[in-house]
Write a structure and sequence with these properties.
339 residues, Rossmann fold
Length: 339
């Protein structure tokens, strides 16, 4: 299918540039977001597989990640600002509704973006959410890493230089990890510090007010991505289905089963009629903010905390280069476990 190999573009976000890649074509748009410190390379294989099934898949590098700009101050990396970047991307793509999804950080940002603009979200694919059960493990993992990035810069710079010299394997998830290890310690510290500054996920009441259908993928291998979090999220969302993955890497190394599940979910979401009126859940999810729909204001909601500039999103600069490329409230969720 034309476009299945992907094209790379840039998007203006205030004073910064964000990079994104597009696979496939058509009105069935899935915006897929990477995990913390990773990038679009993590999910290019998934994007190609879904593109040949009739979807347009957009991989966004959030600020501080991948090929996007990497400001070295923490205020630019709040998760609610990452959600703003997703909504700016939707405006630049010129689409009214999309399915949002991602892995870990990408799941949380997708939820925050849905709360900010429920009328823009047709469905959600949420892999490995990081919610209340993950807090102790996340603190034990990321706080020492943040302190090392702040106060152990010489050692980390040596490690990042060594990682940058490693040959790339051609396997997207591994190369994404190598790229993350190659990042400058100041950039890593800014991202880790920034995600701790603001909300990391919607409140429980906000989650319960989300009406978009959701497919939740969870596993029980690590404490940061606890299956209890995935299960509770599926219980909180009014229209959710939960699948237990065999391993945390199943979608990357043995993708056939989960790709088929995601593809079938996308088929059902786009085949269904218009989703329920989002006005009520928007009022419930954002009781005190009184913000107008995104369509009315575009990216003028870009927050000053992200940048001293109040510039709204600007027109993306498309590149012809290729990327290695060719230049209800159920009582219990529907749980599927691997056989």
């Amino acid at each position: 299918m034309p476009g299945a190999e992907g094209t790379r573009h840039t998007l203006g976000y205030g004073q910064y540039r964000l990079s994104y890649e597009v696979y496939g074509s058509g009105d069935r748009v899935l915006v897929w977001l990477h995990g913390l410190l990773l990038d679009a390379n993590l999910s290019r294989g998934l994007a190609r597989r879904l593109a040949v099934r009739g979807n347009r898949v957009v991989l966004l590098d959030l600020l501080g990640h991948g090929r996007s700009d990497k400001p070295r101050h923490a205020g630019a990396h709040r998760m609610d600002l990452y959600a703003e970047q997703v909504l700016c991307l939707l405006d630049e793509l010129g689409v009214d509704q999309v399915v949002l999804g991602g892995v870990s950080l990408g799941t949380n940002v997708s939820l925050l973006a849905t709360v900010q603009a429920p009328e823009r979200v047709r469905g959600l694919v949420l892999e490995m959410p990081v919610l209340e059960w993950a807090v102790p493990a996340a603190a034990l993992t990321f706080v020492p890493f943040l302190l090392q990035a702040h106060y152990g810069r010489p050692v980390m710079r040596l490690a990042s230089r060594a990682a940058s010299r490693l040959p790339r394997s051609g396997f997207g998830p591994l190369d994404s990890l190598i790229d993350a290890a190659s990042s400058d310690p100041d950039e890593i510290a800014a991202v880790l510090h920034g995600v701790l500054l603001g909300p990391i996920a919607p409140t429980i009441d906000q989650r319960r007010a989300i009406t978009a259908p959701a497919l939740v993928l969870g596993h029980g291998v690590d404490l940061i991505h606890s299956f209890k979090d995935a299960r509770r999220l599926a219980l909180q969302l009014p229209d959710a289905r939960l699948i237990r993955t065999r391993t945390f890497a199943e979608l990357w190394v043995r993708p056939a089963r989960l790709t088929a599940e995601i593809s079938g979910f996308l088929d059902s979401v786009w085949a269904a009629g218009e989703p329920r009126d989002p006005a009520t859940p928007q009022e419930a999810a954002l009781p005190a903010r009184g913000r107008p729909p995104l369509a009315a204001v575009g990216c003028e909601r870009f927050l000053a905390a992200a940048s001293s500039s109040a510039t709204p999103c600007s027109t993306p600069r498309a590149s012809t280069s290729r990327s290695g490329f060719a230049a209800k409230s159920p009582v219990r969720p529907n749980v599927m476990v691997p056989q």
